[in-house]
Amino acid sequence: MMITAKQAEEQAVLNLAYAICAAARTAPKACGIDQTDTAVLTGEDKACLAEEMRRIGGSQGEKGAAMIRDAGNVDVSAAVVLVGAKYETRGLNERCRLCGFENCAACKSAGATCVFAPMDLGIALGSAVALAADSRIDNRIMFTIGKAAASLGLLGAYKLIMGIPLSVSGKSPFFDRK
After folding, report:
1. Is residue 121 a contact partner of residue 83, using CB atoms and an 8 Å limit?
2. What whole-number distance in Å separates Cα of residue 172 and Cα of residue 5?
3. In what side-by-side order are the strands of the sheet with 79-85?
4. How far is Cα 129 from Cα 131, in angstroms, rounded to an integer?
5. pLDDT tens digits, residue range 27-63?
6. CB-based contacts of 97: which residues, under 8 Å, 6+ apart?
7. Which of 43, 86, 115, 145 is deepest in the core (most CB within 10 A)?
8. Cβ neighbours around 115 below 10 Å, total
9. How far apart are the first and last CA of the chain?
10. Residues ≥6 apart with Cβ < 8 Å to 27
11. Three-state SS string across 50-103, please?
12. CA torsion sign, 164 to 158 to 25 to 101?
C-alpha cells in the first residue's frame, strides 16, 4: 500500500487536531474548575463556518474585511479546532473581586465576565498552539473564527471561543496575508 503525501498530511492534521483537544482539556484551570470545551471542524462544517464568517464580515462594511480574509484562511485549512470557555463565575465571591464587582452574583447580574474564563481560555490556547508548533503544523489563533462559531452555536453554552485553523503546505497561509 502506498500513502501519498497529501493523504499523510491530512491524517497528520486530524491526529494533531484530536491531540490539541486533549491538550486544551488537560491545561491548568483556575480554581481547578474545568469550564472549557473543544471541537474539530472539517469538510461541510468547516465550510459552513467560513460562510458565516463571510456573512458577518459582509454585514460590517469595511470593518468586516479581516473576517472575510480569515474566512479564506479557513477555506484552505485542513481542519479548524474550536476552543471555548463558559462565561461562568467560580464562586469565590468576596475572596476574589478581580472582576471589579463585590461578588460573583454582582458580576453576573451586571453581565460582566469572570476574569478566570479568559485566563483559562488563554492557557488552553497556549497549550494547543504549542503542540501544533511542536508538530510543525501551520496554525494561528483567530478570534474571527470564534465569533462565527459562537454565532452558529457550535459549542452550545460556550460563547467565549477562539479558533485555530490547521494547514500543511509549502508556506503558511496564516501569515503574510493581504
Report:
1. yes
2. 17
3. 36-41, 79-85, 160-167, 138-139
4. 5
5. 998 888 888 999 999 999 999 999 999 999 999 988 9
6. 103
7. 145
8. 17
9. 41
10. 36, 120, 123, 124, 126, 127, 128
11. HHHHHHHHHCCHHHHHHHHHHHHHHHCCCEEEEEEECCCCCCCHHHCCCCCCCC
12. positive
Q: Is 56 exposed, middle or buried (0-12, 13-18, 19+ CB in 10 A)?
A: middle
SS3 call for 160: strand
Tracing cell 471541537 back to the chain, one arrives at: 39
> Whose CA is closest to 131, among 164, 160, 154, 155?
164
Helix, strand, coil percent content, the chain, rounded in steps of 5: 55, 15, 35
pTM (global) more than 0.70:
yes
CA–CA dist 91, 104 (Å, integer):
6
Can you tell me the distance from the alpha carbon of 93 to that of 73, in angstroms, rounded to the nearest whole number?
Answer: 42
Instruction: Dump pLDDT digits (tens) for 62-75.
Output: 899 999 999 999 99
3-state secondary structure (DSSP) of residue 141: coil
Pairwise CA distance, residues 142 & 163, whole Å: 5
- Report the candidate in 137, 146, 155, 120 with the shortest Cα–Cα distance to residue 19: 137
Residues 84 and 155: their CA atoms lie apart, in Å, by: 7
